[in-house]
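dude i think i finally got it to work??
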Amino acid sequence: MALLSLTVEGQPDTIPGSAFAHVLVDSLLILGDVGKAITRRSASEIVWYLRDLKISSAAVTLVSRPTEEVGDPILQDISAAYVDGLRIAETGESLPPYFSDASLKHLSDMSKPLGREAGALIARTGNGVHPARVTSQTGRNLKKLRAPSSRAIGSATGALDLISLHGKPKFQVYDEVSNRPVTCIFSEGELDQIKAALSKRVTVNGTVVRNAKGQPIRIESPEIRILLDGPLLSRLVGIDPGFTGGMTLKEYMERVG
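look at this
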């Protein structure tokens, strides 16, 4: 069982209901997104229930129980990834792992009134260790972190999912190095090829657009290569620490990319 507590700081009658509603609704949407990224399963298979709701103090506790498909350790990982992601975004360190573009937008929207109209959001997992504090600074950080800073030929490797034809056709590949979904822009004539690669592990080559922290945020003019099933590079490195020639896995992937 995983517990997650969310509290908006402030005195009674001073916290806008809309701010607390954003925290609850956007948090559930982000949890679903993070859960899908970690389990590679439909978000509907993981349900978060209300354990406790205190309107007077703007606090809610959510609980998710293990199922045959998703065990307790995975649920703990999801709640921890959510809290860690909030903490990373508030510090401006980087874009948080597992958070898609949609989740980043939800987090940005949720943070706007925090620290201004309402107090900061305090998010804790069940063990209460390393809580996250979120204010409107999170939104400002995310705006900077999502801005392109450099372009270069490169690649990303991971599972391809979430094809979208709204606006510019795009799909996402979950980059195995950054543990983040990277948006890839493609032309409609490539749709059949993209659909054939859906849910498969692929390498996407193209022009990689990165933020100021060096994280890939999108790939333009992507070329897809479906990979055969096999061990992940991270597992090979664990078997043979000299596999990357002394470089970290991130450095190695950037060099070979």
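The chain has seven helices and ten strands.
im so relieved honestly
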